[in-house]
């Protein structure tokens, strides 16, 4: 069982997040201030740390820096401060992901799962050899067969292949394919995903045995390879 260290000074929020993580199958240790969390980290390295930026007695950036001096465990930074400088500082300190309050506990659980999945894939043989991307030609091949993609579908699949297992919201995907789409509903993504799924399934001849682009309820979509 994966062990999550949750460092959050808002007790009710911490308990809510803990309950969602436990329901998702994780073991959770909860801390409401930084020094005790860091002391516990020195004794037992967790699988992943969820770290609030503004916890007392040792702030999140300090904890992140000190942890990174000793370990490469995944860290997801949580904060109510949305300024870009805070986000950049957190990621430059070595955080693997960043989420701003208020957030959905389901989204946080999805991000935890995605970060851990990416970590596991780094230790596995490269599976992306199934697909080959040629940016100059704006083409993607599945094995030796070229996918007949629209420019939008190409951008979506390229993003998914570069970040296998990572969950993207519809808004994030819409911003990726068209950052100036002020008047376009993010539900247009569903149509693109439906077409992209069909094209990959047809050319890969997997039928209904595998859904390449999976819906994450209440969050968005992620790309997954079939299990062996």
Unreliable runs: 123-127
Rg from Cα: 19 Å
Main sheet record: 5 strands, parallel
Structural class: alpha/beta
Spatial strand arrangement across the major sheet: 2-1-3-4-5
Walk me through what this model shows:
The chain has 228 residues and is α/β, with parallel strands linked by helices. It folds into two domains: 3-122, Rossmann fold (3-Layer(aba) Sandwich), CATH 3.40.50.2300; 128-223, Arc Repressor Mutant, subunit A. Helix content is 42%, strand content 19%. The chain contains eight helices and eleven strands. It has helices at residues 11-23, 34-43, 60-68, 84-92, 105-122, 151-162, 170-177, 188-204, and strands at 3-7, 27-31, 48-52, 75-79, 97-100, 131-134, 139-142, 145-146, 168-169, 213-216, 220-223. It has a five-stranded parallel β-sheet with strand order 2-1-3-4-5, sandwiched between helices. A three-stranded antiparallel β-sheet has the order 6-7-8, with helices on one face. Strands 9-11-10 form a three-stranded antiparallel β-sheet. The radius of gyration is 19 Å and the shape is elongated. Residues 123-127 have low confidence and may be disordered.
């Amino acid at each position: 069982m994966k062990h999550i260290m949750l460092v959050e000074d808002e007790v009710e929020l911490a308990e809510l997040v803990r309950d969602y993580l436990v329901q998702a199958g994780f073991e959770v240790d909860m801390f409401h201030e930084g020094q005790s969390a860091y002391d516990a980290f020195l004794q037992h390295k967790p699988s992943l740390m969820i770290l609030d930026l503004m916890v007392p007695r040792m702030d999140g950036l300090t904890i992140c820096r000190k942890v990174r001096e000793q370990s490469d465990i995944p860290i997801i930074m949580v904060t109510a401060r949305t300024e870009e400088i805070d986000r950049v500082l957190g990621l430059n300190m070595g955080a693997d992901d960043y989420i701003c309050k208020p957030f959905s506990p389901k989204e946080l659980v999805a991000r935890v799962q995605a970060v851990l999945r990416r970590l596991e894939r780094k230790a596995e043989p490269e599976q992306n050899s199934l697909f080959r991307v040629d940016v100059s030609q704006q083409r993607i091949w599945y094995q030796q067969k070229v996918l007949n993609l629209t420019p939008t579908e190409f951008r979506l699949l390229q993003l998914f292949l570069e970040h296998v297992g990572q969950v993207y919201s519809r808004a994030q995907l819409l911003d990726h394919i068209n950052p100036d789409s002020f008047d376009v509903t993010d539900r247009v993504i569903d149509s693109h995903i439906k077409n992209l799924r069909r094209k990959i399934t047809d050319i890969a001849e997997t039928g209904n045995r595998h859904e390449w682009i999976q819906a994450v309820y209440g969050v968005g979509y992620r790309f997954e390879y079939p299990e062996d």
